């Protein structure tokens, strides 16, 4: 009988107070947080800043090239061994051989 009484009873409204300014306004469920309305600041880069930016870009590019070159050096012998085994075992077949 108490279940029927609970169904007939209207739901209570919960009013939450506004958040205080001392706490951040983002919720734990969202990953996007907007901190203000300043927007994007565009600044002029001086000669020293441009040189440092160019140097940093060159270092990152060199590291990427070294990574890919070392991966090629490591994988090349493996590919050659697999290719030699396939050639010696005839795994690729002979497209010029006539079937009798």
UniProtKB/TrEMBL annotation:
Record region (Disordered): 1-25
Origin: domain of life: Bacteria
Key word Membrane present: yes
Keywords: Membrane, Transmembrane, Transmembrane helix
Basic and acidic residues bias: start-end ranges: 1-12
Spans through the membrane: 55-88
Name under which the protein is recorded: Uncharacterized protein
